[in-house]
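Suppose you are handed a protein chain with no further information: no name, no annotation, nothing but its sequence. What can you learn? This example shows the usual starting point.
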Amino acid sequence: MELRVADNPDKSRYEIKADGEVAGFINYKISPDDIAFIHTETVDRFRGKGIAGHLVQASLDSARERGLAVLPYCPYVRSWIGEHLEYAKLVPAESRGEFGL
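A reasonable first move is to predict its three-dimensional structure. Written in structure tokens, the prediction is:
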């Protein structure tokens, strides 16, 4: 299965496509300095295939490339970062406690 993640700024979300079909997304709110990840959703038939994790990692990598701090309000994003602590440094140090990181 070919996975492709892309920013869709018109919908304020990153989308992941599996073989050309939207399989999931992460809604965000963006400001000049940071990006707040609000909600992650995966289409039912794509669940359990690691797609959400791939989407989160690609979205966090994009935030890093853009020089944006990350505010992980979405429980899934927050949990994923907690399991991949090398990404915790994207969350501002003064906000990590708020997010349990």
